[in-house]
Design a protein that fits this description.
Blueprint: E1 2-4, E2 16-20, H1 28-43, E3 47-54, H2 57-61, H3 76-85, E4 90-95, H4 98-101, H5 105-116, E5 121-125, H6 138-148, E6 151-155, E7 159-160, E8 163-164, H7 167-175, H8 179-186, E9 190-195, E10 210-213, E11 225-233, E12 236-244, E13 253-258, E14 269-279, H9 287-290, H10 295-302
Parallel strand pairs: 1-4, 2-3, 2-5, 3-4, 5-6
Antiparallel strand pairs: 7-8, 9-14, 10-13, 11-12, 11-14, 12-13
Length: 303
């Protein structure tokens, strides 16, 4: 997957089939759009393209209201990784500014999607809006097809257990600790990616413990408690449990206790896959006990 940081840089893409949006979480609805992008790109002999934005538009446009303290399912690194796994050909990451937000929907389609990128097909999710004041939608795209020479397609919203999936709904589930519900909406495990570190002090020196700091201030971390996870770093893979302490307003730190351990794990890029929440208080077990458990005790508690 190629990553571009400007529209001009991305002009080399061949016969683009394009969608646009924040795609926070890369959930089941987003994956439906991506699958359709890939199919259309194959049909047209072109390439699939996602245009996404950083920082989140709400943070820029509504810093004192809707964007204040906004937490996202994915850090930028995590979103790129999930999009790569989804099989996209190209991602264009555009810095979202107030100046960019003033581009009208027709200017965006005419000057960027058509003149610069030469898009063959533009795909949007149901009820997707874009451009200045969110004035652009699928109906506008349909009206501009002949004028600017592209095809347009709308993808219906997806449901899980008769509930419409959205990034907002997933954020709410994660914030309340409902990991399995969030995973169902995502169609993959909720993840945390970070650089593994060895804690300065261990409760039990004989029990390996890994600390993973969360460095993205916008990353949504589940509430304090104990979680069953699996974890991967390069060729390393293990089951384990994560303890998330109260952060007291600071960037949170995630403590990982693994079933297996390798001495060179600290310093590696680690991915945590959250399976379920065990209990807000660690199933009634004090944190000190949890973080000093042996492997057999941990397996009994989690699995």
């Amino acid at each position: 997957m190629r990553i571009f940081r400007s529209f001009e840089e991305a002009a080399v893409i061949s016969s683009p089939v394009v969608t646009t949006g924040t795609f926070d979480g890369v959930h089941i609805g987003h994956k439906t759009i991506i699958r359709r992008l890939k199919k259309l790109a194959a049909d047209h002999g072109g390439e699939s393209v996602l245009i996404t934005f950083h920082p989140h538009p709400r943070v820029v446009l509504y810093p004192e209201s809707a964007g204040r303290g906004l937490k996202l399912i994915c850090s930028q690194e995590e979103k790129i990784e999930l999009l790569r796994k989804a099989g996209l050909d190209n991602v264009i990451v555009i810095e979202f500014t107030r100046e960019f937000s003033r581009i009208t929907s027709e200017e965006f389609v005419r000057d960027i999607l058509c003149r610069i990128l030469k898009s063959r097909v533009i795909v949007v999710g149901q009820n997707h809006h874009f451009g200045f004041n969110q004035e652009g939608d699928y109906r506008a795209l349909w009206d501009w097809r002949s004028k600017y020479g592209f095809e347009a397609e709308e993808i219906p919203m997806q449901e899980v257990q008769n509930e419409t999936v959205s990034s907002t709904r997933i954020r709410q589930a994660l914030a309340e600790g409902y990991i399995q519900r969030a995973n169902a909406y995502l169609d993959h495990f909720y993840i945390v990616i970070g650089r593994a570190e060895a804690p300065e002090a261990r409760i039990n020196p004989d029990v390996p413990l890994i600390m993973i700091p969360v460095t993205d201030v916008t990353k949504l971390v589940p509430p304090p408690g104990l979680y069953a996870v699996s974890c991967a770093a390069e060729t390393f893979f293990s089951r384990g449990m994560v303890y998330i302490p109260a952060s007291d307003g600071l960037l949170p730190e995630v403590y990982l206790h693994t079933e297996h351990y390798e001495d060179d794990i600290p310093g590696k890029r680690m991915t945590l896959f959250f399976h379920k929440r065990l209990d807000s208080s660690g199933a009634g077990v004090p944190a000190a006990k949890l973080l000093s458990m042996g492997v057999s005790e941990m397996q009994e508690l989690i699995f």
